[in-house]
């Protein structure tokens, strides 16, 4: 009897002790400023990340040549102090500031940028933003080795020495590509899996210092034909790429076309520098662990707890540390929008990035001092898979667009006064006249559909609307389903997928109709227009039109700003007539920000650098004086 | 992450003790009737069941009819009846003619076209109902909707339970949701029953090494987290290609759900039935049947199966609630029934999403949860009552 | 006794191997891979990526590779959470899920046992009905509804608990009550049945005849026997509860393992999924082992073999 009771008591005490230990171990002192950072950040490696939650962290940790200014998100001086642009708009020369330091004490030099840009372009980095580097001369050729041609200067990267981190490159042999031999047989594995899309295993014949060598991408354990050396990869000689270190503090970047928004792009996080010492010491992904990471930005990463928070603290080595006001910042991972909003309402966070639509609708009925919806550079649209009948018929695509009542969608489903969209490019682009598709007109839509062979929707196959799992997207899809049913007599079904799977589906065109939203990467219509070139990274519709491609490439080469805009307008006109996409609405800012948060501006790209935020303790919750966020937007 | 295993303990006590007497059924019924709570539950369940079956006949608005200008309208009671939708009789009649046409075409069509024509026929048939705001309905429901339209015209009860985000009538949605929720619970449970009873009976009756192997297999399956498996299978089968192929065969996500859940919940049933069969095998009345020269199949059919009935009934009443809750859980994850279909789980999830500190649309959470809650309460208490009734030892103690 | 340990250990190894194989085959049959991005991957990068995750190997080589890696205790890299290995995910998530689970169990046992005992002693009474009804909420109303309403009530109407998050004990109370309710219901039902059963046993009647008070008899004599089925229920339940509950974790923003369990399945993060399945198997096996051990301690009639 005694033993039994003791056993139970012991179990009980052990349990409570475990709880106490777990809770005790995860205590953290409170932060100065905390915000809900949507879902868990996938990674904080600048070369690997995509998405807004990641951006908020990365721009606080790393500082590129420039950074996005808090008021208008344009390029502002960062690690570079001064810069010059050549008259033809193709050569950028940056003077780096000498007082910029890494958190391990090393100076930030031009070599760091060269290293980081090469790393971004290296196919073994697996960067999804590698193409941002393709503006540079030969950038694409460096990433896409299949573009190598005879006579190109190449670098052969031999296999890594055993025992080094996965980020250390193997020995480099520089030479000239004599020719490529197709080894004829495909590797075992591709035959096994039946994949035809795998690149053939090439043998590169390279002239290295006058001696011809034959190289094949293979691991030390793989078998290779006779007279063939194993290597890790064969790439274009990096010296051919438009990145040049003039001296420790001078960097020259050369780009193929004079790109007026290139500076803005450089402020974007894929171009952020990483510290070579750190990356090569720990390897990927260990170098980004809080205890290893070396950064050069206004903050350093103190702690990162999976699905809980990333904690940032002001960096002691940042060159402009006296202008960074926040000491400790918490970025909380909160999946559920209602939960995030509850945290905001109970005062546990100062900034809620995406409150739920139902709440916004109610909140906006009365004036508030913490919510100021203003137009943003983001378009919500539907992708139509133009490779799939009947959507391969332009008339059908137009009919679907004209049968969509955008006013109803923004009234019922979105909540913060979003603006119905009839064009892809948002209205706020300077010097650009947006081109619109046809307005809501059910009768005309029915007629178009009848012309395409589906009178009253008869014979029209069931189509499926794909969206990533989210209450707001579901509501929109649900409304559209009903609108199409009522206005066209066609049947639509809904399919939701988690973010990752949804991305797979739209990349592989495994959908008929899918939702999508695009935040402009920079302030130029090109960020929207160049998505839809044939085979573009973000085309995702199967839309392929040589005339369109030509307009975009002409615009890229055009120096005259007005003419360039005209070309882009033409391209959008074409896009809106062909309608591989259906624009639905333009986003407005939905941030909820407490009145004591200062230095937070309404920006078109919804970018709010934490570096510039500060807290005014004298302000109370019901303070009527507006902070910067609440100032009316022109 | 609760496992289906939890049932085995509650069940086994009932099972051990119900293996006696043929008049057990009548005895149990007599005892159950004296349990007022259980009878109340039984009555409630029968009422809900009947209402669910005859929902299309009731003067309710169609569940999928949008009135976006009436978004989140609170419950109202007057006027009690109103007209909020149109049912196009002409279209119904026309569709009959068109279908006749297509049917002729179908005879001469080759296989590829035949599928297309069949789909087109279904579209035409469903069109008037869809336009009026009904989900995909079967032949019986279509008949009921027509009958309702004859009797009540286009008049329906006003939104007694309020309206949702799209202005759809919640009352009607709760009724239509009942149909799916209940069917999900029952069918998935029956699938698990079928597999479980067969597996358990074979294992228990044959015995020996086969029994050992079969039970070890069950043990191993137990150690795979089943929520994971269900979600994984549903995700995989939701892959576009697979899904559209399944849809052409008339299999939607809910059908998959029946089978996947059924295929997982059988583990407990198999264990319990096996135990039951083993204890039955050595009972005197089986021995004597054997001695009288009865064949194997006769013994199984006449003596063993009827004695499993009590376990099975208790199992049913206790498993259905679990399956229904599981469906609600999947709705929470966005993997439940797909619009325009509705289930209680889906409604509850929609309801809880709009409960925020700013505004509480109470009707959207209260009615669906109440419907689900009352049904599950009733099933649980009825299950308890049944177990008590089928358990003579406890009963004798009480009397 | 030693033989008991050895047998169990062997059983665990065999089960793990079977579970691994079954899961591997199931996952291998899945169309599409674990790699994806917002942007299209150029074919070179995709080929490299596949190579990195050994996706370009035939299935038997992948199987051998994964198995030998997992055998060393390294469960591989998660394919969606790029910065984390599966081991790290478990290391960070398990203590959180476990804390939440233990507290939830604590609530469940207190509520469940008292409801079960009272309703067995006063069968058919109003108290029986009320307590059992309360306990049944957990299995009659979806947990997301219970949690949502609890937040409204105890965070906004009567502000006594924080809305969400992890880091203090106070933040754990509300979620663990919500999580515990589902288990309380089961425990109450099992206890009630067990108690009714035990109370009708001869030895209990004897005790009663000796003139001990009803409550004493119930607690001293009937309860230990009635506890046995509760303990065997708790074994697998603990394994489940320790690996987290996605609903509660999502609503209360708690960084436990339950979310990963579901996301790994939804997003086809196969390495993470495999790691979590194996973890679950080990936990389940361990808990069942503890249950058997505690049978030996709780019930002198049981001998371990």
Task: Explain how this protein is built.
Chain A contains 17 helices and 26 strands. Chain A has 634 residues and is α+β, with helices and mostly antiparallel strands. In chain A, the strands form six sheets. Chain A has a six-stranded mixed sheet, sandwiched between helices. A six-stranded mixed sheet of chain A has the order 10-9-8-7-6-11. In chain A, β20, α13 and β21 form a beta-alpha-beta unit. In chain A, α11 runs antiparallel to α13 (471-488). Chain A starts with a helix and ends in a 19-residue tail after the last strand. The model of chain A is unreliable at 185-199 (pLDDT under 50). By secondary structure, chain B is an all-alpha fold. Helix content of chain B is 72%, strand content 2%. Chain B contains 16 helices and two strands. In chain B, α1 runs parallel beside α11 (253-281) and α11 (253-281) packs antiparallel against α13 (296-332). Chain C is an all-alpha fold and 305 residues long. Chain C is built from twelve helices and no strands. Chain C has helices at 2-28, 43-52, 59-71, 86-121, 126-140, 143-157, 169-199, 202-209, 214-242, 246-251, 258-266, 270-298. Residues 34-40 of chain C have low confidence and may be disordered. Chains in contact: A-B, A-C, B-C. The interface between A and B is large, with 40 and 34 residues.
Helix segment count of chain C? 12
What is the total tally of β strands of chain A? 26
Given helix and strand content, the structural type of chain C is: mainly alpha
Distance N to C terminus of chain C: 6 Å
Write a compact overview of the structure shown:
Chain A has 634 residues and is an alpha+beta fold. Chain A contains 17 helices and 26 strands.
Topology overview:
The complex is a heterotrimer of chains A (about 625), B (about 400) and C (about 300).
Chain A: H1 2-25, E1 33-36, H2 52-61, E2 66-68, E3 75-77, E4 80-85, E5 91-96, H3 110-121, H4 139-143, E6 153-157, E7 172-182, H5 188-193, E8 202-208, E9 211-217, E10 229-231, E11 233-236, E12 243-247, E13 250-254, H6 262-266, H7 276-282, E14 299-305, E15 309-314, E16 328-332, H8 337-345, E17 351-352, H9 357-363, E18 375-384, H10 394-402, H11 406-414, E19 419-420, H12 442-451, E20 463-468, H13 471-488, E21 492-497, H14 499-507, E22 513-519, H15 526-529, H16 546-557, H17 561-578, E23 581-588, E24 592-593, E25 597-598, E26 614-615
Parallel strand pairs in A: 1-16, 1-17, 9-10, 20-21, 20-22
Antiparallel strand pairs in A: 2-3, 4-5, 5-13, 6-7, 6-11, 7-8, 8-9, 12-13, 14-15, 15-16, 17-24, 18-22, 18-23, 19-23, 25-26
Helix pairs in contact in A: 10-12, 11-13, 16-17
Chain B: H1 7-17, H2 24-34, H3 36-53, E1 81-83, H4 89-108, H5 111-132, H6 139-152, E2 155-157, H7 170-206, H8 208-222, H9 226-237, H10 240-248, H11 253-281, H12 284-291, H13 296-332, H14 344-353, H15 362-389, H16 392-398
Chain C: H1 2-28, H2 43-52, H3 59-71, H4 86-121, H5 126-140, H6 143-157, H7 169-199, H8 202-209, H9 214-242, H10 246-251, H11 258-266, H12 270-298
Helix pairs in contact in C: 1-12, 4-5, 4-7, 4-9, 4-12, 5-7, 6-7, 7-9, 8-9, 9-12, 11-12
